[in-house]
Amino acid sequence: MAERGHWGSKVGFILAASGSAVGLGNIWKFPYITGVNGGGAFVLIYLVCIALVGLPVMTAEILLGRATQTSPVGAFRKLSSSRSGWVAFGWLGVAGSFVILSYYSIVAGWALHYSYLSLTGQIVGLGPDGVGPAFDALFASNGLNLFWHFVFMALTVGVVIGGVSKGLERWARILMPALFVLMLILLVNSFTLDGFSRALDFVFGFHTEQLTAAGVLEALGHAFFTLSIGMGAMLTYGSYLHKKDDIMSAAITISVLDTVIALTASMVLFPIIFTYGMEPGAGPGLVFVSVPIAMSQMAGGTFVSFAFFALLVFAALSSSISMLEVITSYMIDEWKWLRSRATLVSAGIIAVIGIPSALSGGTRLFGDSFADVFGRNWFDTFDYLASNWILPLGGLGIALFTAWRVDDAIRHREFLEGTNLALFYKGWLFLLKYVVPVAISLVFLRAIGII
Ligand code: TRP
């Protein structure tokens, strides 16, 4: 049997794990929920959630992976016992990857389509009035949604099939710097716009009157999504780490990078939105509607819009590969499958599970009829299941398992190995034991509608 893969270098791991974290969540979702929640105060709460909940859980995930050198199901089994119920959290991670990637790929497909439209000058050609109808048409088109969904899954397979250092790491080394450069270009562009100072005040100004309890809990839920924690992706990436690498400092670096990108994305978007007199609280359509409207009026709009949507594709791809890797590594570790077979079979299944999501905007079957029965269409149901249930539940399981079940001797040794931050151990464990479970329980109570 082939030897299990490892990262070629520590930087490679950091880039790949940051690539997993930085995704549609940062560029598409964070700015719009910031807009909906009124800016500054929400941002501050979000930062607190990242530091007190996200960071400890990410550290725990990477630690479980590195300690066991195996994928989520095996990791829980190794550190408890083979018949233990904890293993269910490993399964949840694998199941979660199927669910999330199947609809994530649809949104990534929109970004591909918009990159194509930008490149061919069609975004600018739409003019401000054509943008809304164009998005509605894409949303309702079965053919376009399916086509781009399959293209995006094929791209994801193309990376994952190459393995850990020659696939995931090599592509992260290309995609992440490209993403930083595009982001900087766009930031410089936004800096020159009239709306920049208003945007600065909106994102960083402290307007407490806007903040609601729902906003606080939304910030917490988003901390899970944006850091890719709760479903074993970081655990899987951690399992390819060498023992000499520092877990705690890696988790800090990844969280900081993810946060910087989310804030930068906001500072790219809001100046555009304010300059062109658009509504910051426009919701999920913020990126796909507001940005093209602005681009169609901006000098150099063709280039800027292409840069923007290419950025979105890169960010989505470096995340989707880590979701596929969770399933692939499970098949490789548990079933002893070859990587090529595992990648193709799991991606094939996801491509099929994604079909109803692709058809949610266009057919009655997965759109309206489905919504009549379940309250939301298929696509929205999957999104809701993932962010409100699977990720927080997985995060809770990982926190409780690491803090209360794993043997302290093993946990402490693993934490210390390779770290300069030994003094953080007690604080980390405290957060994991008490703060994280309480915070996640609050999210659940909200989801059930009790608070
Ligand atoms: N963090 C990703 C983003 O911000 C989304 C995501 C959630 C994810 N869970 C994941 C990515 C697990 C990879 C693995 O867009």
How would you sum up this structure in a few lines?
The chain is mainly alpha-helical. The chain has helices spanning 10-21, 24-36, 40-68, 72-79, 87-119, 122-140, 142-160, 164-191, 196-204, 213-226, 233-238, 247-275, 286-295, 301-335, 339-353, 355-358, 368-374, 378-405, 408-416, 425-448.
Account of the protein in words:
- This protein is an all-alpha fold.
- It is built from 20 helices and no strands.
- The structure holds tryptophan.
- Tryptophan (TRP) binds next to helix 1, helix 2, helix 10 and helix 14.
- Tryptophan is lined by residues 20-21, 23-26, 100, 225-226, 228, 231, 233, 319, 322-323.
List the quaternary state of the chains. Answer: single chain
What sort of overall outline do the alpha carbons produce when their principal axes are compared? globular
- Low-confidence parts, pLDDT < 50 over ≥5 residues? none
- By DSSP, the count of extended strands is 0
Distance between the termini: 52 Å
Helix content: over 70%
The major beta sheet can be summarized as: none
Classify the beta-strand content into a percent band. Answer: under 5%
Q: What small molecules does this complex bind?
A: tryptophan
Average of per-residue pLDDT values: 90
